[in-house]
Please model this.
Amino acid sequence: AQKITQTQPGMFVQEKEAVTLDCTYDTSDQSYGLFWYKQPSSGEMIFLIYQGSYDEQNATEGRYSLNFQKARKSANLVISASQLGDSAMYFCAMREPLIYNQGGKLIFGQGTELSVKP
Amino acid sequence: SQTIHQWPATLVQPVGSPLSLECTVEGTSNPNLYWYRQAAGRGLQLLFYSVGIGQISSEVPQNLSASRPQDRQFILSSKKLLLSDSGFYLCAWKLGTGGINSPLHFGNGTRLTVT
Model:
């Protein structure tokens, strides 16, 4: 069963505007972790931001923030003041509780390709 | 600081030939190690992970195998490649003692084309 869903295959945003990339997840656990990664055309995976299921505050890292709505099981990434260098694939990922995920693996969504227009 | 090295960057191999991709991590001990595969324009699929030397967990049945002969070395292999093995292979590590908030750190990937 698909556990991470990213419904936007592609998104366009004007430079300097904000953009929201959607991510919904499916779990019956109370403890889990959510991650966002950026993958430029070079292929490397860059860790952007983390949100824990018990975190009361939405995570922020510079221009990145996470709109975490636990009841709706959504963890949308917000990029403020988009830059041309933000053009990339963005992946949402989830880690289930370590008690039965001893390897600490991440499950990834299918990604959203973001294009920033000048 | 920790670094991860993955090679080669690109590889073109004929069907039926063997494969060996190598990944090493520096600057940490007893990391968890992972091999992911990414089909074109798709998400990452976990192939194998390891929590220690000689310990390999396979996530999906396939034509590939993995080994961890040393603490910070992770190898992905195949005896005979199939066309369906083409893809972008990513090695990753995380702190072995890291909690649920511990991110994976990825290598630069290997783009494998099986012809």
User: Anything to note?
Assistant: The longest strand of chain A covers residues 88-95. Chain A touches chain B at residues 4, 31-33, 35, 42-45, 47, 50, 52, 91, 95, 97-98, 102-111 (CB under 8 Å). The radius of gyration of chain A is 14 Å.
